[in-house]
Specification:
Layout: H1 7-10, H2 13-34, H3 43-63, H4 73-85, H5 89-102, H6 107-119, H7 123-130, H8 140-152, H9 156-167, H10 174-190, H11 194-205
Helix pairs in contact: 2-3, 2-4, 3-4, 4-5, 5-6, 6-7, 7-8, 8-9, 8-10, 9-10, 10-11
Length: 208
């Protein structure tokens, strides 16, 4: 059922969305710069996230069950980011599921869902969601997460390709390369390939 909305009401949706995105971005950038743990989050950042969540909820309330309903996938995803950062994983996952219902192939939604799943050690489901991300759009973080999920699922051979891609990526940061190398050595040990394991160690030592 498509619920009618006055044009005047719908006209506020873009403004609420812009406000929510601005608050979420500022909070995320601040937390990254401050390098604080979730339980150490300053009240100012928590308030930004809560206000961002409220702004995205306003957009959803205005737009859902209208002819624009299909455009809400990114709004649900942004609200999920607010909720996940606030430590409310179950609510964040509900929003991810709503985003994926609207746009099943949305890369950002599949990655967000995968992050929540790997936190619960649901490695096979994590792999399934990451495999939906097209190769050209997969970031080094997502490749590292895919390698981790394969390892957790007892699939060391499948973990090698995405982790090698991170290790040899010109864009990958040093900590991403070191993390990938650590997981690669784990994979090769599980495969009893000590020669390949030694090659990875030498490659990492050459970075210093």
């Amino acid at each position: 059922i498509v619920a009618p909305r006055a044009k005047a009401e719908l006209a506020y949706a873009p403004a609420w969305d812009a406000l929510g995105r601005a608050l979420l971005t500022e909070a995320q950038e601040g937390l990254q710069a401050e390098r604080v743990l979730p339980w150490q989050m300053p009240d100012s950042r928590r308030k930004m996230l809560e206000e961002g969540e409220q702004a995205f909820s306003q957009v959803i309330d205005l737009v859902e069950q209208t002819e624009l309903d299909a455009e809400l996938a990114l709004v649900y995803l942004n609200r999920a980011a607010c909720r996940a950062t606030l430590g409310r994983a179950a609510e964040a996952e509900t929003d991810c599921d709503k985003a994926l219902y609207l746009k099943p192939e949305l890369d950002e939604a599949n990655r967000a869902k995968a992050l929540l799943l790997v936190g619960r050690r649901e490695y096979n489901s994590t792999v399934q969601h990451l495999r939906r991300i097209i190769a050209a759009g997969m970031s080094d973080d997502s490749r590292g997460l895919l390698g981790l999920a394969h390892l957790g699922a007892g699939q060391p051979r499948e973990a090698i390709a995405p982790l090698m891609a991170v290790l040899h990526s010109p864009q990958a940061l040093r900590h991403q390369k070191i993390s990938a190398a650590d997981m690669l050595t784990q994979a090769y040990r599980q495969l009893d390939d000590l020669s390949a394991c030694a090659d990875i160690v030498r490659e990492i030592l050459a970075m210093y």
